[in-house]
Amino acid sequence: DFCLSRGLGDVYKRQTLTQGRQCFATVTFTWQAPIMGNYCIYQVGKKEALDCWFNQKQNSISFEFESNKTMQYQLIAYDFDKVIAETSIEVSWVHKASPRKRRWRIF
User: Fold this and answer.
1) Cβ atoms of residues 53 and 39 within 8 Å
2) Coil, strand or helix: which one is 79?
3) Beta-strand (E) ranges in 1-107?
């Protein structure tokens, strides 16, 4: 429901997200499949799995999410190369980036 923004010294602060800024959050995916099997979770567009489980029917993974855009994830049945479930982490802007230009004034 919210993102953390990185402040000075990499201190994370809870605050509203301005367009273009990175969202930082700890995310947990919990999954359950209809049968025991070999499963992997992938971020769509990436070749390397976030994690894989063998001879499992359910499990979970926690990881640090860092992005300025919405990301999709898929649970894949490894042996059949079949998508079992999909979800996404949506990054929504509370404030749009300001297009104002800074001008210098000489007094």
Assistant:
1) yes
2) coil
3) 4-6, 12-14, 23-43, 51-67, 71-77, 82-89
**CA distance to 9, 67, 104, per residue, from 91 (Å):** 24, 8, 34
pLDDT digits (tens, 9 = 90+) for 74-85: 999 999 999 999
Q: What's the distance, Cα to Cα, between the start and end of the chain in Å? A: 46
**DSSP 8-state class, residue 18:** B
Quote the pLDDT of residue 4: 46
The amino acid that residue 47 corresponds to is K
- Residue 83 CA to residue 78 CA, distance in Å, equals 9
Query: How many Å apart are CA 9 and CA 13, to the nearest integer?
Result: 11
Q: What pTM does this model have?
A: 0.70
